[in-house]
Amino acid sequence: MSHPEHRRKDSPLMPPVVEATWPGFPGARQPEAVRQPEAIRRPRQLPRPFSPTLLAALVAGLDALAIILSGVILQYIPLERGSPQPPLIMFFAALTVSLAGFGGGYAHAALFGGRRPILAALGGLLAGGCLLAIAAQVLGAPVTFRPGAALLWLGLAAPMLLAGRLGSAALFRALPHLSRQRAVLVGSGPQAARFAATLTGRHDQGLALLGLVDNDAAAAAGSGGLPYLGPVTTLDGMIRRGEVDQVVLCMPWSEERRVRDLQAMLADYPVDVTLAPDLMAYRSHASEAPRLLRLADRPIRGWAAVVKAIEDYTLATAALAIAAVPMALIALAIRLDSPGPALFRQRRTGFNNRDFYVLKFRTMYHEAADPTVRQQVMQGDPRVTRVGAILRRTSLDELPQIFNVLRGEMSFIGPRPHAPGTRAGGRPFEEVMARYAARHRVKPGLTGLAQVRGWRGPTETEDKLIRRVESDLEYIETWSPWLDLMILVRTLLAVARMRNAC
């Protein structure tokens, strides 16, 4: 069954003047006006910065350390009543960090200094102390821990917390290539110049500006010295090479249609997309920092990415410990059944549209191997060996992909990787669905939501691919550890029942 609404449509974003297209953004054509190589600068090659989550965890740890050290110091000060006990000290530290986080104290831009994040941290400390005091009154604890001791604790913790904040902000500013997110501005030159001027002044957003992309090279000339990187199509290669962390749209709010088109195009890429408001209309005071409006976030980011990484390596390590001996026996059976290597390497498309080689047990005769998937394996395929048929029926041929997970190329659970050039109903996957590339915003997985729903195996029709990709996109948008647990349990049940295997 065909679904025309899923197929590619031309975007009204760029005028179709020439036929040079952006492969990742269907329908986007490069205007003739921007083809001025002499005006285009090569973007700076900056190293990949540390994760904002890691930096936020470091600052949160320093805040907690200030609370803990001040509580320990309080132990050595003679008081009329007892000093706070270790459980109370740890609870106060966790409470302060949580309240500061709710106040935006650990947002990426807040890590580089400024009045607002410091007030959020000190506010969390004060609010935590007040909550403890109220709880002490309700529970009758003032007999053992008097309010005077609590005020002394706050007086000791505040300067230590402030010192940690100022020191970490100075460190991050001194190491911009390791702490700042690499950003590319998209839009008109004058507004981009105004936004860049705020970043080079006293307002720090934690961004390292690589330059400006714009289809109008003449307008880009008025960007106040920002490097002109080329037309909007330049972003495709930069994102695929992993050179961009955030795309900032700098254009007037009146260009609503253009903002919507750019947002729709960039939504299929693993980058954050923000909108810099028109500063002339937005800022009411010169001291007010511009607030970037978030249009799209990369999926499974921040603490979710940390949880996902821990989950991947934990499951892969456990699976390898359980399956090591069976995998060795499978490899021996393959070698005894037919000549050729036990493992089969096949090129697949992974995270950010980058190709990698997936590992599988060989299930076909070596001379009939088809690494480019010119013909998908069907039920009763004569190219499949006797052992290979069993492995495919039980999905045990996928076990070597545990090593792909441990190498960081795959997740344990995620959209299944497809071989480049694979077809559905005789057409390449990329032509069947306009948003097919969006499934590459996360790492591919050993199993996924589409597989447990039964959408696995050959894609003889376009409808099978559409249903599979719809499930993949649903997984990316609604990910949670509980969803992964459900998929893992259903995968084990599906393997036991040998559903949709061939």
From TrEMBL:
Record field: transmembrane: 54-77, 89-111, 118-139, 151-172, 313-334
The protein, known as: Exopolysaccharide biosynthesis polyprenyl glycosylphosphotransferase
Keyword tags: Exopolysaccharide synthesis, Membrane, Transferase, Transmembrane, Transmembrane helix
Protein's membrane topology: Multi-pass membrane protein
GO CC, one annotated term: membrane
Family: Belongs to the bacterial sugar transferase family.
Entry-linked Gene3D superfamilies: NAD(P)-binding Rossmann-like Domain
GO biological process: polysaccharide biosynthetic process
Positions of the Bacterial sugar transferase domain: 308-496
Pfam families assigned to the protein according to its UniProt record, in alphabetical order: Bac_transf, CoA_binding_3
Main location: membrane
MF-aspect GO terms: phosphotransferase activity, for other substituted phosphate groups
Cell compartment(s), UniProt: Membrane
Species of origin: Roseicella aerolata
